[in-house]
Write a structure and sequence with these properties.
By secondary structure, the chain is mainly alpha-helical. Helix content is 42%, strand content 8%. It has one domain (2-172). The protein is built from six helices and five strands. The protein has a three-stranded mixed sheet with strand order 3-2-4. Strands 1-5 form a two-stranded antiparallel sheet. Pfam families: CxxCxxCC (PF03692).
Length: 178
């Protein structure tokens, strides 16, 4: 199954490198840290992300799985991410989806009205009057790449009638993967 994730892993490597560049350039202005989990919600994932996360979840010990599944059952589609431990740290941090990797960083995107906007965690960059375009992630371009990778993944895994339905993290943890 590893071959199915090659494109996704390549994207994660590119996203990781880009995030590291931005974090290095803006490090003195970022409040994000381990345990800072306000942005960590039970978001929806593309199938490629959901399956990869479910495989990583399957490698956890039984006690940790039971604890996560108990949190997931409290609010299966919204609320805090069930993968957060008691200290607010992600127990599958190395396997987190793309959106989790970019949380807090400046993202550039087009809103519903067609206006280009910048968003970031309000705790970050408080002492800066402006941000350089070089220190932003183009969310629309990133989502297009992720959608294309997901489409290819679904076609390879499911065939021509590939389901493109997004799943919450809680629902992804319950996927039956053989």
């Amino acid at each position: 199954m590893d071959a199915l994730f090659e494109n996704y892993e390549a994207l994660l490597a590119r996203v990781g490198a880009r995030c590291e560049e931005i974090e290095a350039a803006l490090s003195g202005h970022m409040a994000c840290r381990k345990g800072c989990s306000t942005c960590c919600l039970n978001i929806s994932l593309f199938p490629v992300e959901a399956v990869r996360l479910r495989l990583a979840f399957g490698a956890l010990d039984g006690e940790r799985k039971a604890s996560v599944l108990a949190r997931a059952s409290v609010s299966p589609d919204d609320g805090p991410c069930p993968l957060l431990d008691e200290a607010g740290a992600c127990i599958l941090y190395d396997h987190r989806p793309v959106i989790c990797r970019t949380h807090g960083l400046p993202i550039l995107f087009e809103d519903e009205k067609g206006t280009r906007r910048v968003d970031f965690c309000p705790e970050n960059f408080q002492a800066l009057e402006s941000l350089s375009g070089e220190s932003m992630i183009d969310l629309d371009a990133l989502n297009q790449m992720l959608a294309a990778i997901n489409g290819r993944f679904c076609e390879e895994l499911f065939g021509g009638d590939a389901p493109f339905e997004r799943l919450s993290i809680s629902n992804a943890l319950h996927l039956d993967i053989a």
